[in-house]
From TrEMBL:
One of its GO terms (molecular function) is methyltransferase activity. Keywords: Methyltransferase, Restriction system, S-adenosyl-L-methionine, Transferase. GO terms for biological process: DNA restriction-modification system; methylation. Transmembrane segments: none annotated. It holds the Pfam family DNA_methylase. The keyword S-adenosyl-L-methionine applies. The active site is at residue 86. The keyword rRNA-binding does not apply. It comes from the Bacteria. Residues 181-243 are annotated as: Disordered. Coiled coil: none annotated. This is Cytosine methyltransferase.
């Protein structure tokens, strides 16, 4: 059950670099603020926003907006959200930093904040911004009179529970003269490597914010979705941790099929089209009438052991997410299934040439989005557009947890109530 804090609704939330609107969903879950304006120029994402957020006017290309004029025409926003481009900041990109052609859009966002003066600013980017732009973000916010608090959080951390890593940076900023229970005093806890003790969190190349949740090294995580998953085919990427992209990892998984519960080992060994993991089949005992009853039964005279049919079903279910290279993604998948309250869809779908390819519905599930929110047929989006939008998005649960933590961190009473019951007073 979602608990919405009490916040002034006047002005609502203005979203820039909106994409799928996932970041705004996280902000609304934390603050209860509806999104009233979006800024998105991508045609596919704009079509999605028109259908999913019909009440929000699209400003289009935010570099072409007259911000002084807009600020005079709309009520002061209670919040502004921006998950600005990470291509120049990410370890998987050219690493040019926040001054790059794409990530340099931050300057436009800072310009918007200067004129709109939102009561709260919610920002998101890749964790690498700590060494490729956080100093610029902090300096720009300070120059317009905003304090900021930030942290890094992985979607794969146990507190979130996603089945992929997705390491992201989150920040909350606010006007220094209008402290919304976020005092600009020292963060609680010991400073991490490269982070100064006392004052606001600062850019560093070593450790992470003291608010970081510890990683869970016991779960093997899938490669995190990326916009590039919508182009090309399976392959490896030397810039990715482990060298494997999501498209490759998914094609290594045996695709679930109805005949998994009927047939034995496939002769298509080594291909993704085989119906059941060869290792699982080899583990099955040889069925004999004397050792196994035909069906499960509560009868005292029935065999106490399941039939080969049922045993095969149980083992196949356990091995469904074991890749052909032996990597067991099952624990990570099942953990996220429990968090979302719904089973994972099939990871692949039939390709145009009879092959299997990454399913956008599976990526949508990995990102914690509502089924059909991006992949719905009513939107008429191409597969590549769906994967691009999802890859550029944010895991809603991850962002909501980060923002709740950041907003509660400075409040004197923050240690007592649960984060989901956080109450803000930013009037």
């Amino acid at each position: 059950m979602t608990h919405h804090p009490v916040v002034p609704s006047e002005g609502g939330n203005i979203s820039l670099c909106t994409g799928s609107g996932a970041l705004d969903q996280a902000v609304e879950a934390v603050t209860g603020l509806p999104t009233v304006l979006v800024g998105e120029k991508d045609p596919a994402a704009s079509r999605l926003l028109a259908a999913r957020l019909p009440q929000a006017r699209n400003l289009g290309d935010i570099t072409a907006v007259d911000w002084p004029k807009l600020s005079a025409a709309v009520p002061r926003p209670a919040a502004l959200t921006a998950g600005f481009p990470c291509q120049d900041i990410s370890n998987a990109g050219p690493r040019g930093g926040i001054a790059g052609d794409r990530s340099g859009l931050w300057k436009t966002i800072a310009h918007a904040v200067r004129h709109l003066r939102p009561r709260l600013v919610f920002l998101e980017n890749v964790a690498a911004i700590r060494s490729r732009g956080l100093d610029v973000v902090a300096a720009d916010l300070a120059s317009i009179g905003y304090h900021a608090r930030w942290m890094c959080l992985r979607a794969g951390d146990p507190e979130v529970g996603a089945c992929h890593r997705r390491d992201r940076w989150f920040a909350v900023a606010y006007p220094a003269a209008e402290d919304p229970h976020i005092p600009a005093r020292a963060q609680r806890g010991t400073a991490t490597p490269g982070q100064a003790q006392g004052g606001r969190a600062r850019s560093h190349t070593g450790g992470r914010s003291g608010l970081l949740a510890a990683p869970d090294g016991r779960v093997r995580l899938l490669p995190t979705p990326a916009a590039a998953d919508g182009t090309g085919g399976p392959g490896t990427s030397p810039k990715r941790k482990g060298g494997m992209n999501l498209r490759t990892a998914v094609t290594l998984l045996p695709t679930p099929a109805a005949r998994d519960w009927k047939s034995g080992a496939s002769n298509l060994l080594g291909t993704n089209s085989r119906p059941l993991n060869e290792v699982v089949v080899n583990l099955l005992p040889t069925p004999t009438a004397s050792r196994y009853g035909r069906n499960r039964s509560a009868s005292q005279r029935a065999s106490s052991r399941p039939s080969i049919e049922y045993l095969a079903r149980d083992l196949a279910d356990d091995q469904r997410w074991v890749a052909t290279n032996g990597t067991d993604y099952g624990p990570a998948i099942h953990r996220w299934e429990q968090v979302l309250g719904r089973p994972a869809p099939e990871p692949t779908e039939p390709g145009t040439k009879g092959n299997r390819r990454l399913s956008p519905a599976f990526v949508e599930w990995m990102m914690g989005a509502d089924p059909g929110g991006v992949t719905g047929t009513d939107l008429g989006l191409s597969r590549s557009d769906q994967l691009k939008i999802l890859g550029n998005g944010v895991v809603i649960h991850q962002a909501a947890l980060a923002y709740r933590t950041l907003l509660a961190a400075g409040a004197p009473e923050a240690a007592a109530p649960e984060p989901s019951q956080l109450t803000l007073d930013i009037a």
